[in-house]
Amino acid sequence: MTIATPDLRRWSWSRLADAPFPFVVPYIVIFLALVLYPVAYGIYLGHDPGNYVALFGNPTYLRSVLNTVLFVGLGVNIKMIIALLLSGFFAVSRWWIKVVLAIFLLPWAVPDVPGFLSFHFMLSSQWGVINLILSKLGVAHPPVWLVSPGWGFAAAVVAYIWKWLPFWTLILLAARTAIPRDVYEASATDGATGVRQFLFITFPMLRNVYLTSVLLSTIWTLGNYNTIFFVTGGGPIDSTQVFATLGIKYAFEVGDVGLGVAVALTALPALVPLIVILVRRLGRGQ
Amino acid sequence: MTIQQAGPGRSVAATTGRAGAAVATSGTQRGAGSRTWYQQGLMILLAAVILIWTLLPIYNMIMLAVSPPDETLQQHFFPGHPTLINFVTVVTQNGTYVADFWHQMINSAVIAVVTTVLVLLIGTMSSYGISRLRPRWGGWVSNAALATYVIPLSFVSIPLYKVMATYGLLNTQLSLILAMTAFASPYAMWVFSQHSQSALSFELDESARIDGANAWQIYLRIFLPLMTPVLVAIGVYAFLLAWNEYLLAFLLLGSGPNSTMPVALTNFLSTDSPPWNSFMAASLFYALPPAILYYVFRNKITGGLTAGSVKG
């Protein structure tokens, strides 16, 4: 060993050509410059306690806390449950179901801006097609969607589900098709069918994927800016703002960067545990 | 990589003729024999609901895009005099809002293409460095990357804007390219690492090493070629992430002639009487590249993109 040690440490071109560091350096540089530094700088920008005092006495902010919890809680869970059920429908092997699946994926392919602005237009009580349909169906007083906080918010949740349902259905469909068929055959010979088979075989085997999907979807939906911004614009009178839209509004429309960052930072108690859990779950086996 | 295992499995089943019954069982949890006429009816009904739900907002886009100006703001299912004039207006840049249409489309394309190339390069290099050469500090880098992957971009956008100003990159295409690269690379690294574990054996590396190849030669001649199936998926992922990004594009590039398409589109609506018809016509042009990419590469995208979350 004493003879080998200096040999190992000797610098040489061939050793440099096998070193891992040069391969990873480009990523490390962009990570430090464009992720770590901005995150640290953001925490520095939000260090003034006065901003948090202001926020907790601000009804618009308190409303946005409730909206964010509702948007994430309702949006993610309704979407994932429908995705779980639809993945069963799309797993049926019929040619016409493959056609329906191909069309069903369209919202995923449509970029956010035109997709959500199409919802915005459809919801207009003067111009939009939704109230036209409702009036044809005999609804005497259809909601004035974007003028009412409750209906506007509900419409945003629906638009969010429309946009993201295909992606998660596809994920769960993939997980479902990966379940070995003999498991079903064996359980069928044991007399398990229908709901029982779903409860005792399909769901237990999908549980891990489902949980990871819900967690990932939760953290991404917490930061969802485009849905609220384009469907309701945060209005009427800031009643449908969520963290992402309110933070950007304070920082760039109002011009108070510290307050805007403070809004984003108040999401940390939810963000940090989610980041830790997800890094562990996704990093397993790496 | 569950999907890629599922694919061949399904085709094998199809050739043996068991597919119908078996997949139907796994799908609806009912044996094919017990499926009756009302179950068929329910499935068709469900399909109809899915189609209406999916297509209504897209129908609304198309319907407005073919509406003449005087009908656009009249509530209607379909215009009385449908026209293609809005598409002509957009393509010929005949109007205030569409004056920079092609410039902005090219801008979006350049930013998305450069981001894609950088993500593929940085993603393959760093996942090779970490998962094949296995440095002791590799775990730190991959955890940092995974954390970056899950952090919502909108929460970082305010300080990111400030930092870009410090670097003097505001209002340059480079700022958006770098930001998108930084936030798209982690997912690329993760998928490449996963794929290299399932598709590449270390013995291959070792035998190449015995033949005298160094790490860079192994990266170029062995690692990259074996990554091609996921290169397409990650390439499409990075392209679309950059193509679709609104918030950062708005913050970093502003809304002038140099903006990208999603920001340019929102400019249409900044007046009291927005030209919704030409907005939708321009939107359809803008939505076309993503739609084509999704459908051409659908199987590769789902194979690559879902691999991540599917891994239980």
> Main β-sheet of chain B: number of strands, strand sense, barrel status?
none
Compressed to H and E, one letter per element, the order of chain B equals: HHHHHHHHHHHHHHH
Say what oligomer this is. heterodimer
Mean pLDDT of chain A: 87
Q: End-to-end distance of chain A, in Å? A: 32 Å
Q: How far is the N terminus from the C terminus of chain B? A: 11 Å
Portion in strands of chain B: under 5%
Low-confidence stretches of chain A: 1-8
Give me the Rg of chain A, rounded: 25 Å
Identify the biggest protein-protein contact and residues per side: A-B, 113 and 123 residues
User: What order do the SSEs of chain A take from the amino end to the carboxyl end, as H and E?
Assistant: HHHHHHHHHHHHHHHH
| β-strand number of chain B | 0
Short account of what is shown:
The complex is a heterodimer of chains A (about 290) and B (about 300). Chain A has about 290 residues and is mostly helical. Chain A is built from 16 helices and no strands.
List the helices and strands and how they pair.
The complex is a heterodimer of chains A (286) and B (312).
Chain A: H1 4-9, H2 13-17, H3 21-45, H4 49-56, H5 59-90, H6 95-104, H7 106-109, H8 112-123, H9 129-136, H10 149-177, H11 181-189, H12 194-222, H13 226-231, H14 243-253, H15 257-265, H16 268-283
Chain B: H1 2-16, H2 19-28, H3 37-65, H4 69-72, H5 85-91, H6 101-131, H7 138-150, H8 153-166, H9 173-199, H10 202-210, H11 215-244, H12 247-253, H13 261-267, H14 276-296, H15 298-310
Helix pairs in contact in B: 1-2, 3-14, 5-14, 6-9, 6-11, 7-9, 8-12, 9-11, 9-12, 9-15, 11-15
